[in-house]
From TrEMBL:
It is found in: Membrane. It comes from Virgibacillus salinus. Keywords: Membrane, Symport, Transmembrane, Transmembrane helix, Transport. The lineage of its organism: Bacteria, Bacillati, Bacillota, Bacilli, Bacillales. GO terms for cellular component: membrane. This is Transporter. CDD domains: SLC6sbd_Tyt1-Like.
Length: 447
């Protein structure tokens, strides 16, 4: 895809592709275990609040910056604020996407392996120990590195051929199917004996379990699940025509993201409590619970195989956006081949991802601040780089970007009240940066 000429073919294609970029692991994989480890319902409410009050305005901001500049992340800030240091936001986005993809692709590899195993029915078996299966897969260096490599190859191939004809067309079919299969899983999940206890854990808030760290995690989760902070949506919206309402598109992406997070919780926690599993199981929660649920369903092997393939697609659409921001940053001047840059970037991500892939095996005892490489990378992205990127974007919108251009992009192709622009702008100028700083300082025990 040429980053300056290509356009999304339709508003629906842009919304579904952006939703795919946003949902990915954030809503389906990370949200359930973060909720389980941070008190359940109270965390969910915090996540919704942060998504609506902070995440949505930030998403609109990235859309405005990208379409306003019609450039990829780094070039966009250079164009909108020439001869200044604001391009650091785009550079931070490229670096953050690189770190994120290095461990994100490890999980993508796990899903790829599970998808392959589910096709011949190797996962669902009578009296199977799914926790042991997950440990066997993640604890085998060769399997995890193979999964990492295959996952990245898929990403590289798609990026070299562009995303307009591939991701957009597929998103229109596979994203709705993902919703349908999720709903099927939820219906089955809530009918298990003992499911009500899981529903109470997820939907009944207990704020006594919320700490300053939990609030930071909820804020980071809202950023992670909407893909804001790393200028990924700046790059995506740079391919967007002027006939699309940015607030409407951002609202649609945010609503679908919250809905998928709700479905993930409703699908996971009833099963967790019905089968006596631990909601604090961590990153492996989804991989141990899903097979357990499908094993109880008629034609469970077929459902699990289809769902894992759709889950894999959701992860891929998200990872495509990360590799796209990296690739587009180094092909913006057209002097480098997109194909060559994509393969080089993918190879570097593969090498950087190996330590995270070995975090459950060879490097299990290697710790960074008492965290494995995988967990340390996750913490760096979710709790430092993403909030930092969001803070800088808020400051750029509030104090640097041209107000006339912002108003024009915000109001294009919609009938919103003029007061909506002012509300969004004041939220971005004051509420968003102040909230990010307060939550971050609070997590450090300074406030």
């Amino acid at each position: 895809m040429n980053s300056e000429r290509d356009q999304w073919s339709s508003r629906l294609g842009f919304i579904l592709s952006s939703t795919g970029a946003a949902i990915g692991l954030g809503a389906i994989w990370k949200f359930p275990y973060m909720t389980g480890m941070n008190g359940g319902g109270a965390f969910f409410l915090l996540f919704i609040a942060f998504t609506v009050i902070i995440g949505l305005p930030l998403l609109i901001s990235e859309f405005i910056i990208g379409r306003g500049a019609q450039k990829e992340a780094i070039s966009a800030f250079k164009k909108l604020a020439p001869e200044s240091g604001w391009s650091i936001i785009g550079r931070l986005g490229v670096f953050g996407s690189f770190v994120l993809m290095s461990f994100y692709s490890v999980v993508g590899g796990w899903v790829l392996i599970y998808s392959a195993l589910s096709i011949p029915g190797l996962i669902i078996k009578d009296n199977a120990n799914y926790e042991q299966l997950f440990g066997m897969i993640t604890g085998n260096p060769l399997i995890t590195i193979l999964g990492l490599g295959l996952f990245l190859i898929i990403n590289i191939v798609v990026i070299t051929f562009g995303i307009k004809g591939g991701i957009e067309k597929a998103s229109k079919i596979l994203m709705p199917l993902l919703f349908i299969f999720f709903i099927v899983l939820v219906i089955r999940s809530v009918t298990f004996e003992g499911a009500s206890e899981g529903l109470r854990f997820f939907l009944q808030p207990d704020f006594s379990k919320i700490t300053g760290e939990s609030v930071l995690y909820a804020l980071g989760q809202s950023f992670f699940s909407l893909a804001v902070g790393f200028s990924v949506m700046v790059t995506y919206s740079s391919y967007l025509g002027k006939d699309v309402s940015l607030p409407f598109s951002a609202g649609s992406v945010s609503i679908m993201n919250i809905f998928v997070s709700l479905l993930a919780g409703l699908a996971i926690f009833p099963v967790v409590f019905s089968f006596g599993l631990e909601p604090t199981a961590g990153p492996g929660l989804l991989f141990m619970v899903l097979p357990e649920a499908f094993a109880q369903m008629p034609f469970g092997e077929i459902f699990l195989g289809l769902f894992l393939l759709l889950f894999l697609f959701a992860i891929l659409t998200s990872s495509f956006s990360m590799l796209e921001i990296i690739t587009s940053a180094f092909t913006a001047n057209k002097q480098r081949s997109r194909k060559k840059v994509a393969w080089i970037a993918g190879l570097i991500v593969f090498i950087a991802g190996i330590p995270a892939a070995l975090s459950s095996s060879t490097l299990a005892n290697f710790k960074i601040f008492n965290l494995t490489v995988f967990d340390a990378s996750d913490f760096l992205v979710s709790n430092i780089l993403l909030p930092g990127g969001c803070l800088l974007i808020a400051l750029f919108i509030g104090f640097k970007m041209d107000k006339t251009l912002m108003r024009r992009e915000f109001n294009a192709s919609n009938n919103l009240s003029p007061n909506m622009y002012q509300l969004w702008f004041q939220i971005m100028r004051w509420l968003v940066p102040i909230t990010i700083v307060i939550v971050f300082l609070g997590s450090l025990g300074i406030l």
